Amino acid sequence: MNSFTDFNITTTDSGFEGDKIKMSKILGKEIIVHAFRLEDSKCFTGKCLYLQIEFSEEMRIVFTSSKKLIEAIEKIPQKGFPFKTIIVEENDRFRFT
């Protein structure tokens, strides 16, 4: 019988580091965005944006289905990470400043 190790399968760890934090806790406060990931949303139609952020000197994870944030972050070149920003809410929509 084969053993899993016989297959020489390796995987990459694309998981983010830190505890989840609610968007409401970071609104209007400076954060550092280190990385992002887009996945199909489990709750809504469309995509879910996962952000690896640094907030108050701790690595955290925040996620949102905000189309404005998704559209903006997709335009940032890979060399642009990490970057400082503040997420604000205007007219019930989030945006980077």
- What's the main sheet like? 6 strands, mixed
Strand content: 35-45%
Oligomeric state of the chains present here = single chain
Query: Count the strands?
Result: 6
**How are the strands of the biggest sheet laid out side by side?**
1-4-3-2-5-6
| Gyration radius, in Å | 16 Å
- In the CATH hierarchy, the architecture is Beta Barrel
Distance between the termini: 57 Å
Shape: elongated
Describe the structure.
This protein is mostly beta strands. The protein has one domain: OB fold (Dihydrolipoamide Acetyltransferase, E2P) (Beta Barrel). The chain is 12% helix and 42% strand. It contains two helices and six strands, in the order E-H-E-E-E-H-E-E. The protein has helices at 23-26, 67-74, and strands at 19-20, 30-40, 47-55, 58-64, 83-90, 93-96. It has a six-stranded mixed sheet with strand order 1-4-3-2-5-6, with helices on one face. The longest helix is centred in the last third of the chain and has 8 residues, at 67-74. It is elongated. The model has no long low-confidence stretch (mean pLDDT 91).
SSE blueprint:
Blueprint: E1 19-20, H1 23-26, E2 30-40, E3 47-55, E4 58-64, H2 67-74, E5 83-90, E6 93-96
Parallel strand pairs: 1-4
Antiparallel strand pairs: 2-3, 2-5, 3-4, 5-6
